[in-house]
Sequence to fold (346 residues):
Amino acid sequence: MSLYDAVADLPLTVERHERTRHERDTSSDFTRVSTTFALSGAGATGRGEDVTYDAPDHDALAAAAPDFAAFEGEWTLDEFSRALDDVTLVPEPPERETAHHYRRWAVESAALDLACRQAGRTLGEVLDREYDPVRFVVSTRLGDAGFDRIERLLDLNPEVEFKLDPTDDWDAALVGRLVATGRVRVLDLKGLYEGTDVDTTPDPDRYRLVVESFPDAVVEDPRLNEATRPVLDGHEDRVAWDYPITGVESVEALPFAPSWLNIKPSRFGTVRSLFDTLDYATEHDIALYGGGQFELGVGRDQIQALASLCYPTGPNDVAPGGYNDPDPAPDLPRSPLDPPVGFGPR
Fold:
């Protein structure tokens, strides 16, 4: 049975819904805004988090009149998902098209959570999978703090592992200090972003510095062109893809068969697209790790739960949210995380 077949026929009763806006400063020098969708019915409530990055999109949602009728009814999870095809979830044209997938995931994950709760079963029980402890890495941009940010986190937790963004200002001296920590597991080149605050230049010299200096690290989202492609010759089994991954078709469209995928559930929009991609990865022996979107609430619990069920030993970018604070607390949980539930009964 496919993963989606296991959840598609779960009964779902929706009687009302609510939305809550959240806001928090982060270590990456931006204020994170998100919106929690809560679907309720039959004495239970399921939640999902909209991780759209642009605050005006959340403001427009908060100002919109709630369309309770669109969600209300007796469904199976699959029927509810199909009905959402005809629902306007984004009331105003968004700043970026990715908002459509992020908001759809918020509603679908809330529905999955609610369906599990109404069935009295966790998602692990529905999928017949065990929850395993979750290895996690801490994702951070060094920014103005530079290596001081790394030192601070290592002081708090000497065993912490990192997923870092090699930005245009990285040089050999900084790379040498990072190599000496022995704690860098993933390097996100962010070569596929355009028109965002995290864009980087596809510089072949920086790519070579990164690839050669961290021979055991996963290298994520390079921009391949005539100058950068030769740098990765022979290293294809270390390349991971994140930004373009929204479903099976996007995996099949990659420039070469992938060895690694970063799974960010919110990028997929629907439960079906996510679960079909997880099945595809299993069938094609693709290694997986989970990715986060600076979730502020239930979304973090859910990506940790999915990592626990599907890729617990990967270098998962699902660290507890406190690691994203500008000044992390000294008592943050350490990797691996105790098995979380995320969907269904607590």
About this structure: The chain has a mean pLDDT of 94. Residues 98-119 form the longest helix (22 residues).
